[in-house]
Protein 1
Amino acid sequence: MATTTEFVPPRSGRIDKKYNRVPGKKGNFEMVAWLFMRISGLFLVVLIFGHLITNLLVGDGINGLDFGFVAGKWADPLWQFWDLAMLWLAMLHGTNGVRTIINDYADKDRTRFWLKMVLYFATVVIVVLGTLVIFTFDPCIPGSPLEVCN
Amino acid sequence: MSTEAVEPASKIDLAAVGGGGGEIPQFDITLRVRRYNPEVSEEAEWEDFTLTMFGTDRVLDALHKVKWEHDGSLSFRRSCAHGICGSDAMRINGRNRLACKTLLKDLDTSKPITVEAIKGLPVEKDLIVDMEPFFQSYREIMPFLVSKGHEPSGERYQSPEDRERYDDTTKCILCAACTSSCPVFWTDGQYFGPAAIVNAHRFIFDSRDDAGDMRLEILNDKEGVWRCRTTFNCTEACPRGIQVTKAIAEVKQAVLARSM
Amino acid sequence: MQVHKYDVVIVGAGGAGMRAAIESGQRAHTAVLTKLYPTRSHTGAAQGGMCAALANVEEDNWEWHTFDTIKGGDYLVDQDAAEIMAKEAIDAVLDLEKMGLPFNRTPEGKIDQRRFGGHTRDHGKAPVRRACYAADRTGHMILQTLYQNCVKHNVEFYNEYYALDLLTVEEEATREDGSTYLQKRVAGVVSYDLATGELHVFQAKSVVFASGGAGKVFKTTSNAHTLTGDGMGIAFRRGIPLEDMEFVQFHPTGLAGLGILLSEAARGEGGILRNSEGERFMERYAPTIKDLAPRDIVARSMANEVREGRGCGPDKDYVLLDLTHLEPAHIDAKLPDITEFARTYLGVEPYTEPVPVFPTAHYVMGGVPTNIQGEVHQDNDHTIPGLYAAGEVACVSVHGSNRLGTNSLLDINVFGKRAGTYAAEYAKTADFVDLPENPLVETQALLDNVRQADGTERIAAIRKDLQDTMDANMQVFRTGDTIKKAVKDIEGLRERYANISIQDKGKRFNLDLLEAVELGFLLDLAEVMSVSALGREESRGGHFREDFPDRDDERFMKHSMVYKDETAEMQGIKGLRFDTKPVTFTRYQPMERKY
């Protein structure tokens, strides 16, 4: 007749597995990421508006914007640093944003993993290329219209 | 503040202050309920009921009318019926509400009123969901006072200011309206959810408690406070008027402050 | 059949059940069964406070509290129990504070205290500030704090497990004088898992009943839909008597028409009651403490005002609770929830308008008789080893014929703790009692009968008629005729109950089935209440007979006890046996009750 059990755990025993949290790695990664978003955001506001103002408003404004203008800026270490900072911060900020979007909207771990791999790959390519360009920029490419090259 | 000083008048002119009450209007509504019973069918479907209700009636009264007069198999949880037990959180016209605190007259009764189970938790039958994942998250944040050192023989003192610091989050009734309104929780159910964080907040900011660090450590998890996207759905859903998103933000700040 | 074995099984996870579980869970293998989730229990709806003579804000002592409790209960209080409650109240509040309960504080940081109905300084001289509180959500804080501590101590909860039967065995036992009697012993509890529809047997050395009240026998009530007196009903059907069931408390200030509770704290903080002429009518009925008179007196005064044509509103059927002379900031700080109720449910703004109120069924003073250790009596002389009860389901009796405000939160903490402790201590030395041969047979039959019934009556219609007749005939004012009407109506409803059918025949979350079972308990209890009321030909506390308007200590200074007994008859009703139990006196002699 009776199946006697000493202890059958209450309702929690049949909790749906998908709700069980895998204990995460210890560490502050998410907190640092969260903090980074706020700080980089602040810097980006300054960097981007500075960039926009110099490029689009000061002097001849948008009409003065040409290859020479860019080349002129990158001859100046300040603008090299400015654009480098803007590139890195914007890319990391954006990547982290997309990472959280993937976390929020992809509901399978596999999907998440592959989406993030694509994202990280794209980020690395763009950051590396961008950095290279900023530091190895040569205004005197063949056919350059600039006077200094002639 | 003291009220003892003023003795109220033994007779006043009621016309001057007026008194509540008056004729109660009556109207017809269509209640559109999301039905689900795996004993009958794996598919959930909408079912409409046309009911005549009164101006003082709540959505819970409409559900009762259905259950008691039309279809006894309609299943939903309820108990106190005045917004304090937290049994009857459900999605009413797409928003998380307590059925017993939502007056029909405050809804658009010209259109069908939709009622469905809260989202993000497994539906068991009709409006009933499995609350265990919700309570599991609650239990994980150590929702109890931990005090180190020797226990005082009398009461612990706490200034009214210190008491006020965590007052808002003591109001939580664990109805799950906030957690089940959170898009992040909907994704995979891994996020601790607003309710667990609110209840952690209640202790983290209690001057008598000594385990704040442990709770902050728990909520520093990748499924902890950092998954909050400040969409304010939780604050909007809370039937107790708790500033949930603000509480989460305060916990975030506390985690940061602790790490610095 | 699933059998679970625990040292202690607690039925009910409200204040009393969880307070018991905290004690018992640390001493013995304990399970708590609840038909809801623990935090849904109706303790959470209590508002005003919990009295204890801490003397934090003004002079007070527990002896005055004892006196107030006894006088408030119109001397039908067992005075030894009242003394224990008032004395242990102080520790009960301190226990809760240590568990983390967020009490309101005085400027010095001590637990703040407020006035409450019937609680006085020095034996009735003036209202005293004795109620410890957390705004107007003291019960909510108590329930949450107790649940939090159950989580802390890893108490095992079986959520949504309805207790449907108590398993007892009877053994022949010998009295000191050599005569024999049948001694009941507790073997366990039969429980229904709402999620699956399966029956489970919980075998236990001790069982604690903490299943709450039965306010749902009335229509206008502050009680939850789930307060259907299951615990009282189960015990009664198993031959355990019910004590003092004629005494039901009607809380004066329920939202008119809805019954939703507005705490007595509203009056403790300075709110007053007015009739249609704007008069503070309580000055006539209780000249000394006015609006802070005990609940039975205030409720009766309100009903009397309405009866004499001084009611408010289009039907002149309610009075007004006036808070308009209080500072809005004060109201927000001390009474945030109840003012919110007035706004939400009646559309009344309490800052500027008085709130329509009328008495609402609130608390059953009677219940399963216990002694001060929480042990349940099987009759006046014998307790049932291993069976305990605490809270509203029990009758210790500390409330007598009328409970003072705040004393229920006190009751659940003091006697919940006691029941839990004694139940665990008993389980340490006791052995399991063998389960009866077929422990499920009766419960299964009960459920099958309901599930398979193919009558024509709807559960809700019978319940509504029951509540209507109880409201009409068994409310604040009663006469022999109205009570007889109620008894007759209940008999008729019982016949209709035999002819029900339910629509949900499934196993999963079948609340239709459970509502039918609960209605069975309600009918039993309504009958016991009415028949007890018919027997008590006097007026005392919450029981007011217009045909016998005075207290009659000569004939009725004793507890009523009603037993289920197929061979007996009581007031013309077959199947009930009436008995009485003496009241325990220590130091207070009955006096006229004036405020």
Protein 2
Amino acid sequence: MPAPPSLSELQHAFAGVLQGNEAPALHTWIAERGIDPAARLRIYRHAGYAIHVDALVTAFPALRRLLGEECFDGLATRHAARRGSYSGNLQDYGADFAGFLAVQAETAAWPWLGDVARLEWLRQQAVLAADAAPADAAALLVALAGAQGALRLRPCVRVLRSGWAVLDLWRHALLPDIAAPDPATPQAVLLWREHAQVAMRPIAPAQAAFVQALCRQAVLAEALAEARSVDAMTPAEALLQPLLEHALFAA
Amino acid sequence: MLARPIPTAVGIGLRSPHVAHVLEQRPAVPFFELHSENFFHPGASWELLDAVRRDYPLSLHGVGLSLGSAETLDAGHLAALRALVRHAEPALVSEHVCWGAIGGRHYNDLLPLPYTEEALDAMTTHVDRLQEALGRRVLLENVSSYLQFTHSTMPEWEFLAALAARSGCGLLLDVNNVYVNSVNHDFDAHAYLAGIPAAAVGELHLAGFTRKEGLRQDDAGGALLIDSHNRRVDPAVWALYAHALALIGARPTLIEWDQDLPDFAVLQDEARLATEHLDACAALAV
């Protein structure tokens, strides 16, 4: 009889089973009681896959509609086995799902699916982001007058620039009255949180470039330059308009 | 806002499909238990948390800390829990006697431990660290399991009792899990309860299980029970709950239901049934 595994050896072997491998050495140390140890371990493997598939079903509802439940669940199970989770909090699981989809054969015919997945993950981030009070006009003027011209956005603000009609595809997937869009129409989307719900609207490419720059805390001059590299004719007030309209600057 | 104590009554595990109903109707529920990890990001979720704790005593129940891991605890997870506990000031904080992460990867499940001295040392070290980080006593819950390790050197109840004695933690005794494991691993559930130090038990859990027939091929035959949290409490678990109350005494009790959630009224009805047991226990104690 070999020596029993250490706790670390046992947990690493068990983890291998959860990832789809076999661990015959572990079977010796599992009481049979009428059920093959491998079958007992498979209960945990399948439960683990189901936990992670459920998390992706929650985070990616539009993607599941577009792919179909069977296809989505199959891809989600594969993701759970191959990539897995790196957080004890399931709300953090799925950050790399868009990238994973991009290299799966099943999705090759629908190149816009990756951006729909990115949009849904940004929605998740917008929900989970910390709160910050919106800035009033006086605070904005002070920020603009500062030497660095630094404007801080509320932490829930996100933006996606896509070569596809990503927002229309998302709405079409979840809202039955929305007609199927032409996927090949590029779209940029502004996302934020409003009363615990995620709000989204399409914005112009220059506006998206401006918001993206502010999201990574670029100073105002730099953000303006980035917006104008996309569309030199966009006036500054047009760049600011969606952020002011929805009170997305942070105090 | 000061923590409101958990009464010796029957609370309900609050899940997101019922949140709007609870916040609008403010039903008479003695306390709610929330899953800690759902509130790790201080965004929209803290608005909800604050709305619940304004009107109800609160228990926070973690599922992802992996206290039984052979490796060190996830420092980020522990920091997020500490920030949440500081903000929410719950009356109870609980976690599980299990592991769920190794080698940097998380399996987000309540995985079984071998009941050995080595595992007990790991659990004790991690519970010590948790209690030190939070600055308070926590409750540790027994989990359901579908396998047992042959190199275990003590029964599950002895492991729990030793963990409570060595770390000073309390125990959250899940009566459904005791019953499920007694069937799955052929032990006497009453012997389990007799081995639990009553003074350490701070809360009881009740839930429903699923019966998987045809898996066992030995003489015992019968079903494997799965801790599915998707149905009413089984009559056998109600009987074991009555026995636990008689043995341990009345304790705050929680109805858990996580899958295939019914109307909130069904959970309230389960809570009513548990309350009848608690009241009967109190009457006997007089």
